[in-house]
Amino acid sequence: MSSIALVGGTLITPLETRFSNLSIVDGRIATISDHAGEEVPAKRVLDVTGCYVTPGLVDIQLNGGPRCNFWGDPTAEDIFALSDDLLKAGVTCILPTLITADLDHIRKNIQFLKSVGVGVLENVALAQTKATKSAAQSKTQLASRPRVRMPGIHVEGPCLSPAKPGVHPPQFIQPLNLEILRKIADDAVRLITIAPELDPSGVTIDFLREHNIAVSLGHSNATLEEASRAFDRGIRLITHTFNAMAPIHQRAAGAVVAALLDERVSCSLICDGKHVEPALIKLVVKVKGAGKVILVTDAAQVGTSGGGLVGSSINLSEAVVNVVNWQAAKFAEAILMATWNPAAAIGIEKQVGHLETGKYGDLVVWDRQTLAIRHVIVGGEVVS
Question: Is the pTM of the predicted complex or chain greater than 0.85?
Answer without folding.
Answer: yes
